[in-house]
Design goal:
Blueprint lengths: L1 E3 L1 H8 L5 H9 L4 E4 H16 L5 H13 L6 E4 L5 H11 L7 H13 L3 E3 L3 H9 L3 E3 L5
Helix pairs in contact: 1-2, 1-3, 3-4, 5-6, 6-7
């Protein structure tokens, strides 16, 4: 079981340098957890791309359909989050004296703890450092 963060979920939708490596890594997993936070952040990033003119409305709608389709496909498991994720994030932040995490990264790490997931798939270097500091295993497809 592995938690998929936004950096990797976007690579499954958009063609980016690490996209093929992420697809291969996801295919090797039995369960890929997509939290409500990851889904929200992904949809916001997709809209931002459309508004910035990176792609047109039609392509944007295709990306949203592909994202929704993941709900029906193995190995994806979409999971809601309780409001207690914020308390977990605060506790993690207070305990991490030497490692700085941005707010969304900290919330992803708290979501992992809330969902009982100990492995993270990310291409976000800062989030990976925070995860390792918490003792999580990190998989970064396409990264060296």
């Amino acid at each position: 079981m592995i938690y998929l963060d936004t950096s990797c979920l976007l690579k499954l939708l958009l063609e980016e340098p690490e996209s093929e490596a992420v697809r291969l890594a996801v295919a090797r997993e039995a369960d890929v957890i997509v939290s409500a936070l990851t889904e929200l952040e992904t949809t916001i990033q997709l809209r931002a791309g459309r508004l910035a003119g990176l792609y047109r409305e039609r392509r944007y709608r295709v990306y949203l359909r592909q994202l929704r389709a993941f709900r029906e496909v193995d190995p994806f498991r979409f999971r809601p989050l309780a409001g207690s994720v914020f308390e977990v994030a605060l506790r993690q932040h207070r305990a991490a004296l030497e490692i700085h995490c941005r707010t969304l990264d900290r919330l992803h790490l708290a979501a992992m703890e809330e969902l009982g997931v100990r492995r993270l798939m990310t291409n976000d270097v800062a989030e990976a450092a925070g995860a390792k500091a918490l003792g999580f295993e990190v998989v970064s497809p396409g990264r060296r």
